[in-house]
Amino acid sequence: MSSNIEDDTTSSNNHNPVLKFLDCSLRLSVVPLSAATICLTVTNKEDDSMYGEVKFSNVLGLKYMVCISAICAGYAFLAVVASCIGCLVTKAWLFFVSDQIIAYLVVTSGAAVMEIVYLAYNGDQKITWSEACGTYGKFCNGMKVALILHALVLCCFIVLAVISAYRVFSLFEPPFSSEDVQEERT
Fold first, then answer.
1. Interatomic CA distance for residues 22 and 164, integer angstroms
2. Nearest CA among 106, 98, 43, 115 for reference residue 69
3. CA proximity to 54, closest of 132, 111, 106
4. Measured between alpha carbons, how far is 87 from 89 in angstroms, rounded to an integer?
5. Which tens digit of pLDDT belongs to each residue from 156-181?
């Protein structure tokens, strides 16, 4: 019986047209944003006659962001397809857990690239790292734009995580308040 209640409640949440439209729109938005992040990062390189070439494959944090962006785009696309054909829609907990995991992965990759961008612009004088953006300005600007796109993906997944949390937690009755417990005793 509880699975019938879960399926009925989940499907009624999915039939909320505004919620479903927002969910699908955000998931569809993630795909081009992630693709643009990947494209911009992978093609970002700059050559300096004195210091040599710098490209994304030289920086582990950028490789990590590219991998996470690919995972985000793939997951978002599969989630939209699953929503359209309705095969996994009744499993609200699956989207909840998946959205949480993806959001956390986007946070970690964004933090890694943010640190790289910070060090590229400011250096670290304590360990004698000089700033690199004076020499590789085009590369640094490309990293900034990729980081902004990645942050937009994060915003989408934060909202998606809230939507999926709403879907999961609306399956359950609210906990008893102390007033309810006292009324039952009398």
1. 11
2. 106
3. 132
4. 6
5. 999 999 988 888 877 667 676 666 65
The first and second tokens of residue 66, run together, are: 């590219």
Cβ neighbours, 10 Å, residue 23: 23
In angstroms, how far is CA 166 from the centroid of its own chain?
18
Q: Cα–Cα distance between 67 and 17 in angstroms, integer?
A: 33
The answer for residues whose C-beta is within 8 angstroms of residue 57's C-beta and 6 or more apart is 63
Phi, psi of 91 (to 5 degrees): -105, 75
Handedness of CA 164, 170, 172, 176 (dihedral sign): positive
- Annotate 144-180 with DSSP letters as a single string: HHHHHHHHHHHHHHHHHHHHHHHHHHTTSPPPPPHHH
Output the pTM of the full model: 0.79
